[in-house]
């Protein structure tokens, strides 16, 4: 084949590749219908299992298109080995993460691959200095992958605890604001809207979802019952149940909210006292093993030195 023919083939291949790249970039730049409609239905509680708007860049979309099927297959394998999809879904809701179980399993696989990379790098460096030991290298890589998968699960549990701790910290203030708004003559929905607009935090986000459910036509009592069923905090569940019962039976809502806030403050005070009692023994460790020996040494050492000087 002559040079002109090679030039024509390479030019055609380059033109086709550029055409494909330009076509894909134009398709990625076109906003989806869900992205255009989302600002007008932002108050609605989006179904986590439904379609999600694509917000990534072209490179990210290309990476997802190439490695996505492999990651999803690995995530399915992790799901079959570990199981517990209901528990994971429950913890994702309690952590306030907008993720599905499949997406969480993909994150676990990614963390596992990071651990596998660290184990493989360590095994490669060890192989350069100490040849052999292939079985040990494989075992280290497998343990590193499993450790990464389990570490993401533990991180999810820590996210749940951190979010619930923040919710307990802001709960008395939110309850008092609701009680003041209701006592001022506002309806429960208007008071909830005022508190959601004036506050920010984890509990406010949950109340915003309750408000979105109410605005879509769901009864107020049923929306708070749903909040009580999804939350992992007994105090917040009791608060939601109290509001639901007050709405159904006509109980004065302001008194219920004030009582709920007082109960939460009392529970926080009791937890602080219990925490101090548990840490009292730990506080004795440096006193007994550090301060006391030094004090005894300063008290008896001069006498020992004096006896050694006086003794013949």
UniProtKB/TrEMBL annotation:
UniProt keywords, alphabetically: Cell membrane, Membrane, Transmembrane, Transmembrane helix
Regions crossing the membrane: 6-27, 109-128, 134-151, 281-301
Q: What is its main location?
A: membrane
Q: Name one GO cellular component term.
A: plasma membrane
InterPro entries membership: T2SS_GspF_dom
One Pfam match, by short name? T2SSF
* Subcellular location, record wording: Cell membrane
The way this protein sits in the membrane is described as:
Multi-pass membrane protein
Work out whether the entry's keyword set contains Cell membrane. yes
The UniProt record lists the keyword Transmembrane: yes
Q: What sequence ranges are listed for the domain Type II secretion system protein GspF? A: 176-298
This protein's superkingdom?
Bacteria
Q: Under what name is this protein listed?
A: Pilus assembly protein TadB
State the species of origin: Nocardioides flavescens
């Amino acid at each position: 084949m002559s040079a002109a023919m090679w030039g024509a083939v390479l030019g055609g291949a380059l033109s086709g590749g550029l055409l494909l790249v330009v076509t894909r970039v134009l398709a990625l730049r076109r906003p989806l219908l869900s992205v255009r409609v989302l600002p007008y239905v932002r108050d609605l509680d989006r179904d986590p299992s439904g379609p999600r708007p694509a917000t990534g860049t072209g490179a990210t979309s290309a990476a997802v298109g190439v490695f996505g099927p492999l990651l999803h297959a690995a995530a399915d394998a992790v799901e079959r080995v570990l199981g517990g999809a209901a528990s994971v879904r429950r913890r994702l809701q309690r952590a306030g993460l907008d993720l599905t179980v499949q997406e969480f399993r993909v994150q676990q696989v990614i963390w596992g691959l990071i651990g596998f990379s660290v184990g493989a790098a360590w095994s490669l460096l060890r192989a350069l200095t100490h040849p052999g030991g292939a079985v040990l290298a494989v075992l280290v890589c497998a343990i590193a992958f499993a450790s990464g998968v389990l570490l993401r699960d533990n991180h999810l549990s820590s996210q749940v605890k951190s979010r619930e701790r923040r919710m307990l910290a802001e709960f008395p203030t939110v309850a008092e604001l609701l009680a003041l708004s209701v006592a001022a003559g506002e309806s429960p929905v208007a008071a909830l809207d005022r508190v959601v607009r004036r506050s920010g935090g984890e509990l406010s986000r949950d109340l915003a979802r309750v408000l979105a459910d109410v605005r879509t036509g769901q009864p107020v009592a049923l929306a708070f019952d749903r909040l009580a069923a999804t939350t992992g905090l007994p105090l917040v569940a009791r608060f939601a149940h109290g509001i639901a019962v007050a709405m159904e039976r006509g109980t004065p809502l302001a008194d219920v909210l004030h009582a709920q806030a007082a109960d939460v403050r009392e529970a926080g005070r009791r937890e602080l006292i219990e925490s101090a009692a548990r840490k009292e023994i730990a506080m004795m460790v440096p006193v007994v093993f550090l301060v006391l020996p030094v004090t005894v040494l300063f008290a008896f050492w001069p006498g020992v030195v004096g006896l050694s000087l006086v003794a013949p």
